Amino acid sequence: MYDLAGSNFYNPNWGYQNGAVRNSREYRINQPVTMLRHDWKISDKTHVFSTFGFQFGKYSSTRLDWYDAADPRPDYYRKLPSYATDDISAGLVADYLKSDENHRQVNWASMYAANAIRDYTFQNVDGIAGNTVRGKLAAYIVEEEHYDNQKFSFNSVINSNITENLNITGGLTYLKEKVHYYRQVDDLLGADFYIDYNRFALRFFPDNPEVQENDLNRPTRLLKKGDIFGHNYNINTERASAWTQAIYKTSNIDYFGAVSITNQSFYREGFTKTGLFPDNSFGKSTVQNFLNYAVKGGITYKINGRNYIVANASYRTRAPFANESYVSPRTKDQIVKNLTSEKITSGELSYLARYTKLKGRVTAFYTDFKDKINSDVYYHEDYQTFVNYIQTGIDRRHLGVEVGLEYKITSKISLTAAGSLGQYIHTSRPLATISRDNSATDLVQDRVVYINNYYVAGMPQQAGTLGLNYSGYKWFFNVNVNYFAKNYLQFNPDRRTAEAIGKINPTEQKDLYQSIIAEEKLPDAMTVDIFCGKTIKLGGESFSLNLNIGNILNNTNFRTGGFEQLRFDNVGKDVNKFPPRYFYAFGTNFTLNISYIFK
């Protein structure tokens, strides 16, 4: 679609409605945060700092939904040239999509037209015998998916200089968080109502009409604008921790050590009784508890007043994220098998130099992650439902070298340079479990994913920046040249399994074999950014302007990331049937910050 539209910024989610652009995807965020801080000076050597925080409000995104109707998305793969069965048909489809921008965008008028002729009659609405309702059932709606967060946090830190050489710090933290996940009717697009049915379930259980009910407590429920439907549940998390750190300084060596202990619990609370899983969807689930700890230590060796060597090491365990711990939290409270805490081992060794004109730091780092969990959800064409792809036992290793330098050419002009050379790779063969939203039975259990030594996606393995900075009388100017290399596409783990390869001979069918398992490297990229600002004094008041201009060379071909689709042509082994999706950096962009400070 990028090629057909002639733009790397093609967006399939909008279309014209009555001559005006309307986007089916909007983010709506209104989450106020309140904080209260208390400082207590117990003595000249001991202080306590405490903060209380509370966050609440709404966080949602909109999208199209449909019932008993064709997929309305203009980039749906069945509407693209790649789905055609021959070159002539593919060419006709391509010509159609290129001929008019409207053919590549959401057709709002057609959805309104489809809703206008949908005359339906429903019996026993809301489970009330004899309650008959007739009207226009929406084929298409705009729904609003909510992830409303309510969070209370408390943090208290005590710091005490026991002696001139010894400092001890300790703290307590507490977090209580509730995230409310639900769907809401945002726009009926001219229809009278929508229905709270699971449109996929009845395909698998045609003799049991109850399975299509999203909420058995309110069967055959007709929906108006603003009504909650589909999934509706909370994930409640509670975490408390205590920690302490000691720093001991001598003339040549500084030492520090720290320990912490954390208890974290979470549970799911469902507000609907789904027809598919009536016994484990409604009400409070079993509470999951994890006790974790961390130890950290380090030394700083002062070669002299300008040169230092710093070594740090740590080991910690971390509870799994609650939203990745359930097999399908939208429909049930089933926990991922063999749920365990992640283990993280880390170490770094640095050399620091601080001279009048030159400041620098060189750091070698190493971090090892074990027992990470990853959960993905996608629509599976063969099963005609959403499936959950859960990997356990994911191990990774991050190691490399980072460098940062600053050199003063004059008192006002300086050069800065920073860079990182890393190797971030997978170091295990995770086990994958695949389940359907419409079935309690797993489709696949403990499928081996062969990704050992694959690069970790989503971050450049190599990156650097070179800057020229000027700081004059109440104004500054910086220009930075940035370079990114060895960034990899997020791979589909199921293509790296024995089942995906099947009977392909890696010697005789080398090209096909490599097209399935090879990891795609994104092109290296360069950008240039400018930062400048000016402060004007007006008596006791001041006026400031700060301007940031990003990507001034307007590099619109910079692929910042992307992913292989989890859907795969298991029969034909055609990797282009569900091609990867790429993300591109914006072209030239800017932010202007204006501030006025008065007394």
Characterize this entry briefly:
By secondary structure, the chain is mainly beta. It has 5 helices and 32 strands. It has helices at 2-5, 87-99, 108-116, 498-501, 510-517, and strands at 14-17, 20-23, 27-30, 33-41, 46-55, 58-66, 119-122, 133-136, 140-161, 166-187, 194-195, 222-223, 228-249, 253-270, 283-284, 288-302, 307-318, 342-354, 358-380, 385-408, 413-426, 431-436, 442-448, 462-471, 475-485, 487-488, 521-522, 525-538, 541-550, 559-563, 581-584, 589-597.
Detailed description of the structure:
This protein has helices at 2-5, 87-99, 108-116, 498-501, 510-517; strands spanning 14-17, 20-23, 27-30, 33-41, 46-55, 58-66, 119-122, 133-136, 140-161, 166-187, 194-195, 222-223, 228-249, 253-270, 283-284, 288-302, 307-318, 342-354, 358-380, 385-408, 413-426, 431-436, 442-448, 462-471, 475-485, 487-488, 521-522, 525-538, 541-550, 559-563, 581-584, 589-597. The chain is mainly beta. It is globular. A hairpin with a 3-residue loop joins strand 18 (342-354) and strand 19 (358-380). The model has no long low-confidence stretch (mean pLDDT 94). The chain has five helices and 32 strands. The chain has a 22-stranded antiparallel β-sheet that branches. A two-stranded antiparallel sheet has the order 1-2.
